[in-house]
Specification:
There is one protein chain. With 336 residues, the protein is an alpha/beta fold. A 7-stranded mixed sheet has the order 4-3-2-5-10-17-16. Strands 1, 6, 7, 8 and 9 form a 5-stranded antiparallel sheet that branches. A 3-stranded antiparallel sheet has the order 13-12-14. α3 crosses α4. It has helices at residues 6-15, 34-37, 39-55, 73-81, 84-89, 163-172, 183-194, 244-247, 259-265, 276-280, 282-299; strands spanning 4-5, 62-67, 90-95, 109-111, 118-125, 134-138, 144-149, 155-160, 178-181, 196-205, 207-208, 220-223, 226-228, 237-239, 242-243, 253-258, 308-314. The protein is 30% helix and 25% strand.
């Protein structure tokens, strides 16, 4: 049997020639993200883009970079929600390893590498949880060792953690029998933020912080809408929650909040429409009721609403809707 660390195994399983994310169905064929749950999510990102444009002073060209773009669903939804004046100035980038899908708006730049020198909004929805990472477990003497995995998902302990990984574990995850070494996510996010000359970078994901690290990790798999054993053979998604506190790029104004708080601030609420509308305009009432149900799903604190939002402003003020949002218990707010 061939054994390897989880990081290269994930890399091959997710992004190799026959990897999970190379399939024609894309993420939507296997699991439901906020983008697929409701167009209200794209509408909220459109509002955030408009506020970013305002904070930047309405530049002649405004970048919208969707990192881990799937099949372009979020970009398509945001572009359709913008007013014509702003839409005319937006330069949309879909950053994705898979081939460009048919039917995508012509103005979308499809690329497998993030451009640099951007001015605008960089948005990464459920991207960092799929950045490959190594797993470590403590042996019987308490020494952290890399976990190695076989083709069928079997595991064994390998060698002790090396310098940079050992330093990350000691700094960010000092306790726990099994840890997920987020150093590669930190580096990926720092590179994404560095693509902005001026603008706002937002990462949205399953998240934890130093105050609530999961003692046995979160590595899992998804296939066809169901959670499955993580097997690195390309047949399923392989994902792990994100240590968003370690990912925050230094020397940049940063804030953490929940998706529930962020979407409420951006106008997405799950309140029921008034019953009086049912008698005066039944069709409008049914539409509003459907929208309320979708908003409730997006903001459910036990589901999508519990996602972490890490927002980092680069050479610009924080957009007004995000100012003063609550920080989850145990998380810190970093200042420039």
């Amino acid at each position: 049997m061939t054994w390897m660390r989880w990081r290269p195994a994930m890399e091959r399983a997710l992004y190799g020639a026959d990897g999970f994310y190379r399939g024609p169905e894309g993420p939507a064929g296997h699991f439901r993200t906020s983008v697929h749950a409701s167009p209200l999510f794209a509408g909220a990102v459109a509002r955030l883009l408009a506020e970013t444009d305002e904070a930047l002073g309405h530049p002649a060209e405004l970048a919208l970079a969707d990192v881990g773009a799937g099949r372009g669903e979020l970009l398509t939804g945001v572009l359709s929600a913008l007013d014509p004046e702003l839409a005319a100035r937006v330069r949309p980038y879909a950053v994705e390893l898979a081939d460009r899908p048919a039917g995508l708006p012509e103005q979308v730049v499809w690329t497998d590498a993030l451009p640099t020198g951007l001015t605008g909004l960089l948005f990464a929805n459920e991207w960092l949880d799929n950045v490959p990472l190594d797993i470590a477990e403590a042996d019987e003497d308490g020494v952290l060792r890399y976990v190695e995995v076989g083709a069928g998902g079997e595991e064994r302990l390998g060698g002790p953690l090396e310098g940079a990984d050992a330093a990350w574990a000691a700094r960010w995850w000092p306790d726990g029998e099994r840890i997920e070494i987020g150093r590669t996510r930190d580096e990926a996010w720092a590179s994404a933020v560095a693509a902005l000359d001026r603008g706002l970078a937002v990462a949205v994901d399953y998240a934890h912080s130093a105050a609530d690290r999961p003692p046995f990790g979160t590595l899992t798999g998804f296939r066809a809408g169901r959670e499955v054993r993580p097997v690195p053979d390309g047949s399923c998604d392989v994902t792990a929650h994100v240590a968003l506190d370690s990912a925050a790029a230094p020397a940049v104004h940063s804030l953490w909040t929940t998706q529930r708080a962020a979407l409420h601030a951006l106008g997405v609420h799950g309140g029921r429409p008034p019953l009086a509308l049912a008698s005066t305009d039944p069709a409008a009432y049914l539409r509003a009721l459907g929208g309320a149900g979708e908003a409730a799903e997006l903001t459910d604190p036990a589901g999508l609403g519990g996602f972490g939002w890490l927002a980092q402003a680069v050479r610009m003020p924080v957009p007004r809707s995000l100012e003063g949002l609550p920080t989850p218990a145990g998380w810190q707010t970093l200042l420039p």
